Amino acid sequence: MAEPYFPSAPHRSEDDFERDLHTEHQVLNMGPSHPATHGTVKFLVELDGENIVNLDIQVGYLHRGFEKECEAGTWYQCIPYTDRLNYNSAVLANLGFCMAVEKMLGIETPERCQWLRVMSGEIGRIGDHLTRCGAACLELAAMTPFLYGIEARELTWDHLEILCGARVTSNYIRIGGVKHGMPPDFPASCRAYIAKTRELLRDFDDVITSNRIFVDRLKGTGVIDRATCLRYGVTGPILRSTGEPLDLRKQEPYLVYDQIDFDVPVGTVGDNYDRYLVCVEEMHQSLRIVEQCLAKLEQLGPGPVNVFDPRVRWPAKGRVFNHMEELIQQFKSVTEGPRVPAGEGYFAVESANGELGFYLVSDGSAVPVKVRCRPPSFINLAPMSGMLKGALLADLIPTFDFINMIGGECDR
Amino acid sequence: MEDHGAVALRRLLASLPAAVLETHARLGDATAVVDRARLLDVLRLLRDDRELDFAMLTDVTGVDYLPRKPRFEVVYHLYSPAKNHRVRIKVCVPEEDPRVETAVPLYASADWMEREVWDLYGIRFDGHPDLRRILLYEEFEGHPLRKDYPKERRQPLVGPRN
């Protein structure tokens, strides 16, 4: 009787088996327009199976020549361009640029204007964080919290519209002031908005913060430590999630932040989950700040919101129509705007993504020599390839979401 | 803030007097123009000195001062979170020899920002590990933030060859 035939394996030991398998790294091209990322950026991912070996981040798809355009216009003409840097929190970019120009002009804005600036900036910051957290949930396949977040963001932008006249590109901050004061019905409407946003944030929190899938996707992914953050110049919620309480609103209080009571939330580990918690807590702190601004603005009552400085403000209409000097001044203000004294200045504000600085160079004329925007999105994105070495490809999505690279600001 | 920056400038002048060409603190921004050849020494001192402790290089950018000579400046903004002070370091770069030593070994943040300065101003950073264009594409001709680059200039069309 013939023995049953069992073919023997071609390998003798585990080592042989390993040697016979042929594997090679795969290069995957993600983007520039990928459905799982918001923002136009290309990732060249070198993969070993599902693990990231190398990551090359290619930015620049939204480069519009912001600095070149600014060098071709007057100082005032730069402000609408700053709106289009970080289009989620345009007021903060307006603010950084205008305060840098004011620093060079030596202008101190009136108190009412400073409170209005803080308030509009914080509403913008809430909108930015809502976009970040909501879109991150969406990209991790959680639709419901995204809808809560977007509902709150719509309310946020509605209130920016009531205050500034535009939802997204607000163009609200002017050199030496703001476009106009707040409408009389704004405080009541804004208080209702604050209450509603808190409710939505509570719903958001209930549905996602302790959700098992969400926590598993975020905890321990995209980890960065404090020292690496400092070496890479990373600021904002990413740096604060590592435990470093660096917030320019506290460190170098500009405007009236030294009179406002708010806390700077910090994380401990520096992973995506910490970043999420920091952003959510920052929204609550911003709501507190907006409340304090409303109370203060009501106490201050109506009055001038612009500095009285003929270099940056238009003369009163009545005088323009009846006096030659004011007519000439009006003409000069409209056609060329302020002449900024020769020199250089750097001013930074704490934007939703971190330190948003403007380095300006003037030769004393009405046209800037140099308008440099120090973009937090660009600088925060640089360490991302290090954060993801060895991680799973799926971890790229939440990490990129919580870095919150905004193409308009990153690529300028 | 002004005081802290002034302290940093004094310490820099005391430690590396030969490297510092000029200092000022106009508008409260402590600024030092340093010798191009000694830039890394200056940055190393600023980073490693216990009293200065500039842990962050927050910004690197260029400025084109055409028709001044030397034409370019590379501007470094440093910040110390621990001491809460800032300083600005500038080096002058002539048009004929537009190169500066890279700061990447000292500050990782210099990597992308120096690539951007190379991209937009055409200033080379010697020793940079990966000096590619970053905001524009490889086929782009010229460096657009130079003052002699016309804003309306068109670029040749590029795209996949068929």
Task: Give a brief description.
The complex is a heterodimer of chains A (412) and B (162). Helices cover 48% and strands 11% of the residues of chain A. Chain A has helices spanning 14-20, 66-70, 78-83, 90-105, 111-139, 143-164, 186-208, 212-218, 226-231, 237-240, 248-251, 272-300, 317-322, 324-335, 376-381, 384-387, 396-403, 407-411, and strands at residues 26-30, 42-48, 51-58, 173-174, 177-178, 343-351, 354-362, 370-374.
Unreliable spans of chain B: none
Number of strands of chain A: 8
Q: What would the principal axes of the Cα set say about the shape of chain A?
A: elongated
Q: How many domain modules of chain B?
A: 1
Q: What is the typical, i.e. mean, pLDDT of chain A?
A: 87
The chain pair with the largest interface is:
A-B, 42 and 39 residues
Number of contiguous helices of chain B: 3
The CATH architecture of chain B comes to 2-Layer Sandwich
Number of domains of chain A: 1
Strand content of chain B: 25-35%
Tell me the overall shape of chain B: elongated
Topology:
The complex is a heterodimer of chains A (about 400) and B (about 160).
Chain A: H1 14-20, E1 26-30, E2 42-48, E3 51-58, H2 66-70, H3 78-83, H4 90-105, H5 111-139, H6 143-164, E4 173-174, E5 177-178, H7 186-208, H8 212-218, H9 226-231, H10 237-240, H11 248-251, H12 272-300, H13 317-322, H14 324-335, E6 343-351, E7 354-362, E8 370-374, H15 376-381, H16 384-387, H17 396-403, H18 407-411
Antiparallel strand pairs in A: 1-2, 2-3, 4-5, 6-7, 7-8
Helix pairs in contact in A: 4-5, 5-6, 5-12, 5-17, 6-7, 7-12
Chain B: H1 2-15, E1 20-24, E2 31-34, H2 39-48, E3 56-64, E4 72-80, E5 85-93, E6 99-101, H3 110-121, E7 124-126
Parallel strand pairs in B: 2-5, 6-7
Antiparallel strand pairs in B: 1-2, 3-4, 4-5
Task: Fill in the keyword field for this structure.
heterodimer; A: Cytochrome-c3 Hydrogenase, chain B; 11% strand; B: 162 residues; alpha/beta; Beta Polymerase, domain 2; five-stranded mixed β-sheet; two-stranded parallel ribbon
